[in-house]
């Protein structure tokens, strides 16, 4: 395997970064062929062993809306105590009940900054989504759970086009103020560019949120994700969502492709001398192993460059 990148620290970027791995959830939710639960379990165990501090495991959504994750109960039961510390998505009280039954300690709600995506992804209007999430967050907090909030379509929407920054800040802040500990700003369709990231983070700061309250969630559709991470780092955000091997997408957002690949993020941060705690070799081996199960090569440039030749998927 090639040596890790040469390190050229940036004096302005000295804070460690938390990589929030969403591969088992965002990465797999879009896969049309059902993946056996034991593969999902092994994926999660390997990602944790590679040093990822947070691994989002699955979603307690309606099984007919996302059939790939209909095995959420079985997966979490197989993971046992380990699974209880991994965040899971819950859209509503029914989802929360399912998560509570399994002893989950971290849940995430996921709202939309736009009317159209709220309807397509949640079957609710923009306003109705808050009524759906309010009892989820209240009950989760009463039960001692930690709650993350996502807001999607922060940088553009395939049906509505540009999304005004004030609208994104208004929705995001309202979701966060329900009682979340972190707000993840989603570029669901990967259209963001660096200046837009700076502008949005600044707007949230002006609205009273600290940089520590925010995470950034980039899909890499237009190849801008790493440049957007750099803008986020310069704006003071230290949590980045990424998906091992660059898998991902949203079944309810046309043109949503893979998430920022965790390996690409790790390579980039390592080169900048930013601490992240993840072992790149194990991660590449894991994504190469997963690609062989999915039957196609990983879209991650770093995985393709570093994958062990013997295990590389044919054509990869
Ligand atoms: P709905 O059809 O409006 O549900 O779906 P409902 O509240 O009308 O209930 C209808 C029936 O479904 C009821 O059963 C409920 O019990 C059942 P009945 O009484 O008729 O027998 N039901 C459930 N069953 C199991 N688990 C549940 C559940 N909820 C209701 N949780 C709903 C509304 C929100 C459930 C649906 O729209 C849904 O599941 N949506 C999820 C879509 C999704 O998962 N999208 C991908 C994740 S978001 C994303 O990827 C973006 C992100 O990565 C950030 C970014 O990139 O921007 C996070
Ligand atoms: Mg996503």
Based on the model shown, name its key terms.
316 residues; alpha/beta; TIM Barrel; 12% strand; globular; binds 3-hydroxy-3-methylglutaryl-coenzyme A; binds magnesium ion
Describe the overall structure:
The chain is α/β, with parallel strands linked by helices and 316 residues long. The protein has a single domain, classed as Aldolase class I (TIM Barrel, Alpha-Beta Barrel). The protein has helices at 23-27, 37-49, 72-79, 81-84, 93-101, 115-122, 126-142, 165-177, 194-206, 225-234, 262-272, 280-294, 301-306, and strands at residues 18-21, 54-55, 58-59, 88-89, 106-112, 146-152, 182-187, 214-218, 239-242. The protein has a 9-stranded parallel sheet with strand order 2-1-9-8-7-6-5-4-3. Helix 5 (93-101) links the parallel strand 4 and strand 5. Helix 8 crosses helix 9 (194-206). The longest helix is centred in the middle third of the chain and has 17 residues, at 126-142. It is globular and about 50 Å long. The protein starts with 17 loop residues before the first strand and ends in a 10-residue tail after the last helix. The model is unreliable at 311-316 (pLDDT under 50). Residues 26, 29, 59-62, 65-66, 91-92, 94-95, 98, 110, 121-123, 150, 152, 186, 188, 217, 250, 252 line the site of 3-hydroxy-3-methylglutaryl-coenzyme A (HMG).
